[in-house]
Amino acid sequence: LAIGFGLDSPDSFTPDGKLRYGDTVVVPSDRCRLLDEFGYQGDPDLICANGNHDGSEATACHGDSGGPLLVPGRTPSEHIAIGVASWAATRDGECDAKYENVYSSLTSSAHKNFLQFHVNRFGGTLPLTELSDEPPTYEIPTAESTDGCFPEDAVVTTEDGSLKTMEQVRAGDRVMVSSGRFSDVFGFGHRDGSATSEFVRIEATSGHAIELTAGHYVVIDGALLAAKDVMIGDVVTLYDGSTSKVEKISRVNRRGLYNPHTLEGTIVVNNVLASTYTQAVNPMLAHLMLSLPRLAYRLGMKEPLGSVLYDSTPAFLRTIARSSS
Q1: Which runs of consecutive H residues, i.e. helices, occur in the chain?
Q2: Can you give the pTM of this predicted structure?
Q3: pLDDT digits (tens, 9 = 90+) for 53-66
């Protein structure tokens, strides 16, 4: 729980004196985007919390500094304070729910020693309770969990206007890759109908939604960004070239892992523009490595990659890619 007397809406100018609380989840400091932007990522004396983990746009704001971050117990007397509100991101003077809130950690050894020392100076005692369980954290999937893919029920548009699910797509199909453009599928980076995996679901204000694994690139603000790094307020590109803001991000389990490669290197899935590339290999390097298969396809070989990548990116390709980057 995050607790404070801060502003309750962007339209407020001064706190109204009401104490409020909200559900939040802890983000480890080594995965906190806000700390990373300011060069404090991994700082053991800081922790982050994300009130917007469920798309509610809840966030700490002006006036919340000094408020506690609590792990709730069965009764109020069993609540454990693990942090004190320190700072948050603002945009044009308004608190920005796109980023996490930063708290001074009460579980770091430096802060515990500091508090104990000064409480003892005044003859007091400070009960320090060790957590029996870790506080609930906001797990951000890593690219190593699976190669970048779409679920089997994700939909693409073919050149004749018909729709196909990923399960139905075959090498040789011409699918939409951007507004008014179509390109051939020449192979697959993954094609496994038996797998069940976790996907990042990105929903836009336009009503469109795309689901893809954490390390798969989607076009955000005109550039490639891994699904795990997309945040509320980012802008996706739609099938007709228009754009829409991201309003909700969640994690879902879906069946199937499919990643069709197009000659263009992009693909429109569920009417949202994405890349065919992933964090498994740098996109520029991946495009270069696939030059020969693309050439072979253009010369008449239907699926030059065969089934070599159906299960995942082979380990030797990962090794080459990483040693070259």
Answers
A1: 33-37, 109-121, 283-289, 291-298, 315-324
A2: 0.57
A3: 766 778 888 888 89
Could you give the CA distance from residue 108 to residue 43 in angstroms, rounded to a whole number?
Answer: 10
User: Other C-beta atoms within 10 Å of 136: how many?
Assistant: 13
pLDDT at residue 62, as a whole number: 83
Closest to 90 in 3D by CA, of 102, 78, 80, 82: 102
Return the residue matching tokens 């070989």.
Answer: 301
Q: Return left, alpha or beta for 299; rule: phi > 0 is left, psi -120 to 50 is alpha, else beta.
A: alpha
| Distance separating alpha carbons of residues 127 and 284, to the nearest angstrom | 55
CA distance linking residue 154 with residue 147, whole number of Å: 16
- Structural contact between residues 275 and 265, judged by C-beta atoms closer than 8 angstroms: yes
55-13-100 Cα angle (round to 5): 30
Nearest to 174, CA basis, from 184, 188, 160, 161: 184
CA 96/CA 94 separation, integer angstroms? 6
| pLDDT tens-digit readout, 188-232 | 988 888 888 889 999 999 999 999 999 999 999 999 999 988 988
Answer yes or no: are the C-beta atoms of 73 and 80 closer than 8 Å: yes
SS3 290: coil
Q: Which residue has the tokens 């980023």?
A: 99
> What DSSP line would sit under 144-197, residue for residue?
TSS-S-B-TT-EEEBTTS-EEEGGG--TT-EEEEETTEEEEEEEEEEEEEEEEE
**CA distances to 55, 109, 228 from 251, in Å:** 12, 33, 10
Residue 73 CB burial class (10 angstroms; 0-12, 13-18, ≥19): exposed
Q: How far apart are CA 149 and CA 257, in angstroms?
A: 5
Q: Is 45 exposed, middle or buried (0-12, 13-18, 19+ CB in 10 A)?
A: middle
137: DSSP letter: B
